[in-house]
Each structure stands twice: as structure tokens, then as C-alpha cells.
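ok trying again, last paste got cut off:
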Amino acid sequence: MISLNYYGGKSMKNKLLIIILSVLAALTGCTDRNINIAGDDVPEIEENVQQGEESKENDLPPYNNDEKVLTNTSANIANMGKAAMDDQYIYYANPMDEDKLYRLDIKENTNKKLIEEKIQGNIILYEDKIFFNRISDRNVDVCSINKDGSGFKTVIDIRTFFTIYDGNIYYFKGTGIFDEFSFERFNLCSMSVDRENEQIIEENVWGGQIFLYNDLLYYTSLNGYKEYNIKSGDSRFINLAERWHSIHAYNDNLYYIVDKSKLYTTNLTKNEVSEVASVREDYILTLYAFDGYIFFTAYSINKDNVLEIYRIRNDGSELINIYSIEYAEPLGNAASENIFVFKDNLILIDDAGIKAIDFYGNDVEMNFEISD
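nice, full thing came through this time. structure:
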């Protein structure tokens, strides 16, 4: 067991949070700690990376609380899909209760367990239902319930990533055909959420992450990263930097991590690739683009018991270290922390804990307690 404490922001300095962290992924290390902003002017780290900020009225970030956009669904999916939000509730897999599905009422700050099923992730809200991947015995399937927890149904009885648009669910289905490296080929399929009219959209693709942005699907085909227009049926290949992972969309751009140490973006209008920032000796584990910013976690082997959370504008300016997670003992170079956004709050979820902070790194009181 590994104990840790969160700190960052003025209100956190005297608070100690002990949780148990199960390490999710093992990463390899780099050698030299520096953070560089892409562009001609490369600022010194001491002058540009700040630890925490005090919230100020009408100060950064300029989130408009009247906006209808509350979260970035594609970023939620890229961060394991452990949480989803509407204008009243946060629905999440509670790591403190075996990843069972909970619903937090934002206005009342009350918490309710919806079902006893264990949720792997990929939580998606569609109309009055919640869709998700459920872990059942040795199988992972796609299920749905009503938003009040009633009406449990199995939608797809195979393990698959999926997304939903206009009454149809889009997913990968195994073909039973394996390549020379023993990787199975998949078909990209669609059918109605009522399990009718199954169709194959594209044969022989990789069965990895799929997400929806407007009326466009993004996924990995055998020959490259692809965009599929649901309405027209047209498709095109999207340019990405090599060795990318953790990809999602926001404001007509794709955001992703390259070589575990760089933030990149692809402009979807021009299909052009550009670097936003690089982190040497740190590994960028997760990122989240929202409201003109990119939030990301980075882990350093030179500070082998600290995981940092940064905020940077999506043009690569104003890099700020807003929060840190300090572990009671070294972890080597393995750590994980998934980021989710609801309005102007960050929700941090790992295997054993969940916590909310604002965009400045200050504590936000949310009731994530286990309930019956």
C-alpha cells in the first residue's frame, strides 16, 4: 500500500488526504527535467511554472457559466471514460466502491449509488440513458440504464469501445481473423440503440478507442488515423505526429501526447500538425483540452514521489503548475491520474480515490462518499 497527500493552491496547504493508489501503468524513464513551450521564445522554468494560484473574480480561466458546454465528452473517453456529466449530475465509476456507478447531484451535493455493477469505463450519456462498459465475470460488455438507475439492459454482449449518435451506436466487432503478430482484426459497425439494423461501415480496422466529435467519428484504421462523416459517409485520413496516444477533440482540433513527453495538436480544418509543449524528464500521462486550456499530468523520475498537474493555454502559452500529488514513498516511474472537467472544476480519479479542484488548484467540496 502507498499513501499520498494532495497539495496545491492556497486552500490546500494545510490539508492532508490519504488514499491508497493502485498503479495502473508502467512507463520508461527520461533523463533531464525541463519544460519547454513550443515557439521562438523558450521561457525559463523558474519564471513560468508556478505552483498554485489564488482564485480571483473575472480572472483566468474565462469560463462562461451560461454556456451549454459543460464538459468535453471525447476527452472524458480518452481519460478511461470513468465520468460523464449533464447540467445536474456527474455520473462516475466510484473507485472507493469497486468502480460501481454513482450519481452526484451538483446542486444538492448529494451522492447516490445507481447500480451494483462494476463499471470499466466508457460512460456516455444519451437522451435519458447512461451507456457504459460493465465488467461481468470474465466478460466486459456494453450496457445501459435509465438516469435514475432503473431499466438495466445489455446492449452489446462483447467487449468493445463505442460511441452513440442520432439513435445509433458505433462500435468494433471482432472478425476472428488474426495477423502474424496475433492481433485480431475488427470491423467498424453500427446498429440502433435498440439493437436493430446492424451494418458494417469499414472492414479490417484496429479495435481501439473511438470517439465522436460533432457528426464525425475518429478511429484507427489499418493504414492510419481516420475521420468518418456519419451524415455523408465520406472519410479521410488525419495527419498525426508519430508515436501518439491519448487523443481527443476540442474546438476543431485534435489534442494528443507524443513520445510520452510532448503535447501536440492537429488542426482539423487544415489537417496540420503542430507541437504545443514538451516536457523533458517528465512523462505526460493524461491530458484534457477544455475552454481554451490544456490540463495535463506529468511524472518525473527525479522527483520520484511527485505527480504534477499543469494548466497551459492551447496556444502553448502561460504554463502553470496548479497542483501536485505527493506520495509517501517512491513509485519508480509508474503513476496514473485521470482528469475530467465539469464547468470550471477538475475531477481527479485514480484506482483508489476521487477529488475535485478548480482550475487554479484549489479544493472544491464535492460529496464523493460511498452510499448505499
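cool. The two ends are 26 Å apart (CA to CA). The first helix runs from residue 45 to 48.
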